[in-house]
Protein 1
Amino acid sequence: MSTSAVLDGKSAPARVAIVAAGIVSPLGCGLAETLGALQAARDCVAPVTAFPVEHCRCKTAGQVKDEALDTDRNGRRDRRVHRATRMMIAALDQLFAQDRQFKPQLTVIGTTSGGMSYGENYYRARHERASLRHAPTWIANYPPQKPVIDAQERFGISAACQVIANACASGTNAIGHAFECVRSGRYERVLTGGYDAISELVFVGFDSLQASTPEKCRPFDRDRSGMVLGEGAAVLALENLELARRRGAAILAEVIGYGISTDNFHMTQPEPSGAGARQAMERALASAKIDAAAVDYINAHGTATPFNDAAEGKAISQLFERVPVSSTKSMMGHSLGAAGAVEAVVCLLALQHQFLPPNIHFRRPDDDVDLDIVANAARTAPVRTALSNSFGFGGTNASVLIRRAAT
Amino acid sequence: MSLGIAGSGWVTPLGSGIEFVWDRLLRGEEPIAEQIGASPRDRTHPVFRVPEAALASLPRDPRLRRVSAISRFAVAAGLQALESAQLQLNRGHPERIALIFAISNGGVTYTRRFYNDIVQTGAQAASPLLFPETVFNAPASHLAALLETTGATYTLVGDGAVGLPAIRMAEDVMASDAFDYCLVVGAEEVDWLLCDAYRQWRLLRARTPLEPFRTSPRGAILSEGAGAILLGREGAVKIDKTNPGRAYRNRREAAEILELLLADLVDPDTGLIVASANGTFVDLAEAAAIGKIAPHAVVYTPKPAMGESVGASALWQVIIAARALETGEFPPVLHPPADTPLRIAGQGPRTAKTVRAVVVSCGLNQQAAGVRLTIAP
């Protein structure tokens, strides 16, 4: 089981390929549906149906359609597992349909809240002195590692799991750490990604902070008033590029850099000058050994909160010269631990299909940040290198760089 | 890759400070259990809590004013680990230390309070002060802020074994030349809701003591605290091998996976196994695997003396293994079974010059992992 003995030791950094990917989000299920929604600039945010929201300011979210989760693998047993597990299974189903030979040695997945809604069920039932007949199922499926373990089991994967919970940066941190694991030569193949399912506790939490908006989500707009939540799962199969080529795997793209920083400013607010965000992007560029000018597109964290977009916008405009920027959260909401992975797949599609995904609901630019926003409609453009940002509570910042596969 | 333990710290129901707690363990002391429940009318559960005095050395930092207990435990243990390594972060390169935080249930008390307001009154009553502390990486964030680290900070979630995958992750992170040190911290806070949930699972004992390695397990006693180890390139005690294990599907498979883990980690020089036996099915799985693969090794479990602290427990085990290698002594297992084929610590000689110890942990939610520690002879 241990790989350290055989893969230990220093050698030239390995190149890291993405050989397969899967995605379930409010935009749709699978790469083709997601591409269609992005190119059509579809607004996939809708009224919340999973729990009552009449006492919240915000009443909308990006939600995954239940039909998307009814894969062939979802048998009777899956009715007991958490919705997050079903999203992971649906995403993995797509990934393994693309590359059946991919056998990960390690799985690194990001999340923020695991099977939170089952914890809520348990607490409510206990509080209301209702039946606890389902309590063992709720408790067993509540821990954040459970959806990963169950989804792996469904595909016969026995790799060790590292489940990262770095708030909203979790998905990007997971991809970045997985990238480092392959690049260092300690692993040849790592499965990575992120997941999160919408839950009442988290929804109300962001509402209580007045971070979520009762209006449309308008990242980087002068009149932005906050985020909307989302949910989803996305997975990427990372492999040593040379080994992937040798076995004839499809190379979808290459992860070339990763930056992580901690800004220690505030539990829920970014450092206002954007220093933490800038440091993560600078470290990603240094890790990839490329200049800022080589980046053709930035998928921003862009939550549409006044503080985040101001700090991120400053950091981007300090580092880059008029690079196209969009936040696809405007279309599907913020899926927290899944967001980094979902947005990495969005970057992958932009690289494969040579377009810039849109930032919808954009009306007026913010005078304080000078950005080239991909406003309201997708743009055709040559895209060779894309940067994806994720920043989270606790001052955790992460950026990954993805390059188009050589043709 | 081999990493050295450059420093360590812990906050436990027996107190805090490596030497202080180690001495109490050697003397075979155990904490007094406290009974906690939702209300005086409700069922109560015995737990081992951290005494307030154990946190006396916490800095008076505004950041710690309203934080959860788990964050305070983590900060206290993390600062001890740095102090024992004589490392002052803010005078060096704060980006060159990575922080990996192992966590299982997180800030469960604030999470319960936050959700309770929603259930009792409605969303309009939800507290914006509590919500940020419900996030899994809140303790890591507070610790990073106090240490002024600006590099990589990761919170790894899992079950009681999570501290060992966190060490494996530290190995992965330290494969990069970007880091000189990695501080690995595991922490847990206890709450009646947690006890209530584990009781639903039939994993808790209604009264003390916690009796390990019984052929018919009677249940665990939950506890709280934090453990921290600072890993660097050097150190008298090395973590020379890690095994990330894999998930077990059922209790029978747990024993099989532990057996594979031990077969990978144990060698003839391994004189001590620090196990995670906690009075549950884990004990049966560990006893079967150890009996098969390492019948020669002395077996110790800290859980009867310190309780099942879930997220913190594997780090406590590693600290104990390191102390045993350094001092040649090991504490007695409290409340051992009358008859067992295992060589239970404390039932024979209390000292043993061994150069290798294996720490194995089997969590209650399907995870199992192990690490091996070596001291230069």
Protein 2
Amino acid sequence: MVRKILCLSALLSVFFLTFSEKAFAASGGDDDETSFIMHHIKDSHVWHFATAGDTHIALKLPVIIYSTDRGFEFYSSSDFLDPETHLFGKEHNGYYINEYDKLKSIDENRWFIDLSITKNVAMLFLVLAITLYLLLSTSKHYKSNPNKAPKGIASFVEPIVLFVRDEIALPNIGPKYKKFTPYLLTLFFFILIGNLMGLLPGAANLTGNIAVTITLAIITFFVTNFNGNKAYWKHVVATPGVPLPLLLIIVPVEIIGLFTKPFALTVRLFVAITAGHIVILSFIGLIFVFDSYAVGVASTLMVVFINLIELLVATIQAYVFTLFSAMYIGSAVAEHGHEEAHH
Amino acid sequence: MLTSLLLTAGFALMGAGIGAGIVAIGAGLGIGRIGGQAMEGIARQPEAAGKIQTAMLIIAALIEVVSLFAVVVCLLIALNGNLTF
């Protein structure tokens, strides 16, 4: 028994000693696998589609800056690119883009707002255009052919709208569902199309950007709390039927609970989409690590399989975000009669 | 030698790797249980199969997201693992 433990610890220490210095050689630098993955996940001022040999097929997106002394300034991000190396770092008119792809000014104390059209903003406009086209053409079809069965794009959108109304809005919100169904439909379609578009090659990771998901969660937070009725707020700050000592513990927990709900919404959508993209990119990166055709074939099959799972995840995450939003709204506008059923 | 072992970030990377493995166990246990109970439910009442399947997929997505929280943490540690202290 003692011999076994000694052998095991000897093996383990050999393992540590051999591999402990390798940690430094592993990461860092531009040709690294992790930077390849991060480059596809993160936002950027250049929308890079492909690299054919030495030429980069990339869209150099505009950089828009607002400051109090200079007003609005419009540049192309190619102004900040070094002409030979095609990397950011060149200084132009007092601004430069640092290695984390963030616009900074040479003068540290200068205040400015970065309103650039970055990759994710351009993707947002694209998703917006597609969503508007889908929904507006559907409503136009209904206006021009009243009381007839839908044809064309309306017949594609109608089951989804009915699904959101009948399965998500009506059961969770109750009698007041009509007021909130437009918001839930917007949420569902935006997240669904954003997720699905993000899976295309060359697309930007829109709903996997925590700024986008936190905005959606904050909007849900405002919709829930501005529509909260008296029973809802009473439940948060003065929970009925609870003795005073317990109340001192329960009220802070309830108030923190107000904020954990949008936080959970944010992180759930962000993590699900980003992790999916990281898995797909890791499998493709494996091909370049091993530099072999056989790994190329196997990796591609795995990537096809995982892409199918990601399609499912995209739909489910849109459904779950909308469902939880509907549940929170429903608990905020629940009628007093519902409270009576508790006690 | 021992101090250099403590100072390298090798332990952090190892922790990240082992953490990701444990996360996989957690997700596997959770989703496996859901799948098992769903199978039982469908076996008992085959006409409810559609509803049970839908509910199973949704809960599986929720559990998977929790495991992905932990994967992101491990990834953050692994990608910043070359820092020395």
